[in-house]
């Protein structure tokens, strides 16, 4: 037990930096917060004469606060809402809006509210169906780098006729 009474501020600093180095190899952001708490305890114990038991309690409390803050507030902000890096099949069934109407001789453009596979706007065509600017469309297929779309109204009518 005597070893506990000889903890110096630089011990906390070394522990903190070791935990930060571990974080480079373990990408969980868990040891980062323990390391940050240890560095703060090192600064506090250097500035204020606090006992080892208080130092340990402060380290535990700070670590818990940092972990809770990470999972509750910070991590939800970093969630990638795009579907970048996923296969093309994730696009089928997505709903977007026509911003350039496709013609028989040229592709149109569909815009999605959330980027799909890295892009918010895609070239599109229909299978003979007329769609106007502002129409909501659903992706039914992919041909090359163009999406095949159909009006959501046409899709709803098709589903209705199938139910009858």
From TrEMBL:
Which residue windows are transmembrane per the record? 12-40, 46-71
Keywords assigned by UniProt, alphabetized: Hydrolase, Membrane, Protease, Transmembrane, Transmembrane helix
Q: Name one GO cellular component term.
A: plasma membrane
The source's superkingdom equals Bacteria
Matches recorded under InterPro entries: Membrane_assoc_protease, NA-bd_OB-fold
List the molecular function annotations (GO) for this entry: peptidase activity
- Name its GO BP terms in alphabetical order: proteolysis
Protein's recorded name: Putative activity regulator of membrane protease YbbK
Identify the taxonomic lineage of the organism of origin.
Bacteria, Pseudomonadati, Pseudomonadota, Gammaproteobacteria, Moraxellales
């Amino acid at each position: 037990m005597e070893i506990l009474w000889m903890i110096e501020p630089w011990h906390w600093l070394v522990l903190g930096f070791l935990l930060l180095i571990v974080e480079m190899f373990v990408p969980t952001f868990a040891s980062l917060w323990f390391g940050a708490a240890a560095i703060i305890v090192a600064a506090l114990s250097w500035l204020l004469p606090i006992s080892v038991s208080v130092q340990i309690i402060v380290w535990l409390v700070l670590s818990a606060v940092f972990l809770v803050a990470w999972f509750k507030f910070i991590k939800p902000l970093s969630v990638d809402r795009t579907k970048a890096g996923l296969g093309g099949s994730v696009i089928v069934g997505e709903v977007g809006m026509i911003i350039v109407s496709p013609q028989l001789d040229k592709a149109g453009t569909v815009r999605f509210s959330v980027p799909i596979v890295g892009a918010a706007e895609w070239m599109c065509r229909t299978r003979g169906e007329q769609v106007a600017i502002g129409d909501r469309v659903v992706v039914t297929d992919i041909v090359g780098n163009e999406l095949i779309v159909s009006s959501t109204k046409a899709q709803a009518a098709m589903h209705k006729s199938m139910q009858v």
